[in-house]
Amino acid sequence: MSTENSKFKDFNFAEGELLLINKPYKWTSFDVVGKIRNSLKPLKLKVGHAGTLDPLATGLLIICTGKLTKQIDTFQAEEKEYTGTMILGATTPSFDMETEVDETFDTSKITEAEIYEACKPFTGDIEQYPPAHSAVKVNGERLYVKARLGEEVELRKRFVSVPEFEITRIELPEIDFRIVCSKGTYIRSLISDFGKQLNNGAYLSKLTRTRSGNFLLSNSFEVLELVNYIRSKKEEAKAQEEA
C-alpha cells in the first residue's frame, strides 16, 4: 500500500490515537483489538475498544491506543445509531442468527400500519432485559457461556433510552429499521420485544452501527487496510535506519 494515501496520517500510537474501524462480519470486537495490537509490535501499547459489537454485527468500532485508552469510558457512553434488518414471524433463542429458529408464527394478517404503530412503545425511555446469549456478566461469568451450557440465568432489567426507532422498509418477512439509542441498549432484545408487541415473533438478521457520538462509519478504516498501512510504515522506517 502506498504511504502517499491521503486517507492516512502520521499516527502517534503511544501518545494516543482514536481509530474508527469498520468491524467485519463474524469478527469479535476483541479480534479487531488484537489485530491492531499485533501490528504495532514491538511497541507494547494499551489498545482497547469503546463499545462491544456482537460478532454477527458490523460497523463502527472505536479503538483507542496509548494514553487515549483512559478516555474509553467517555467514548463508550455516547449515543449510538444503528441500521439493520429483522425477520418477522420467527424467533431464535439468541434473538439473532447465532442460533436456529425455534418457533414460527403466521404474519399474513399483520398490516404495515400495525408494524409502524408497534414502534411507539419502544421509543423514549424503556426497560429491557439483555439476551441470555450476551456478554453481560452474572457472578463473574458471561451470560452466553451459561446459555451455551444450558444453564438457567436470572436476567436483570435495565433502563435505556431510544430517541428514534424508525421502520425504513417492509418486505415481509424482512423489515429494515434505523435506531438511535443510549449506551447499553440491546438491539436484539428490542427486536424480540417488537415481535411480541405484534403478538408474533421477530429476530435480528442484520445489524450495522453507523454512528457513535459524533463519529461516523463513513469515516472509518477497514481493519486490514489500516494494519497493512501500519506495517508499511514500520518497514519504511526500518529501511531508512539501515540506509
From TrEMBL:
Record field: catalytic activity: uridine(55) in tRNA = pseudouridine(55) in tRNA
Domain Pseudouridine synthase II N-terminal, chain residue ranges per copy: 46-187
Keywords, comma-separated and alphabetical: Isomerase, tRNA processing
EC number: 5.4.99.25
Gene Ontology molecular-function annotations: tRNA pseudouridine(55) synthase activity
Record's keyword annotation contains Isomerase: yes
Pfam families reported in the protein's UniProt record: TruB_N (PF01509)
InterPro entries, per database record: PsdUridine_synth_cat_dom_sf, PsdUridine_synth_N, tRNA_psdUridine_synth_TruB
Active-site residues, Swiss-Prot/TrEMBL: D54 (nucleophile)
Keyword check for Isomerase: yes
Domain of life of the native organism: Bacteria
SUPFAM superfamilies: Pseudouridine synthase
Described function: Responsible for synthesis of pseudouridine from uracil-55 in the psi GC loop of transfer RNAs.
Family stated for the protein in its record: Belongs to the pseudouridine synthase TruB family. Type 1 subfamily.
UniProt name for this protein: tRNA pseudouridine synthase B
Phylogenetic lineage: Bacteria, Pseudomonadati, Bacteroidota, Sphingobacteriia, Sphingobacteriales
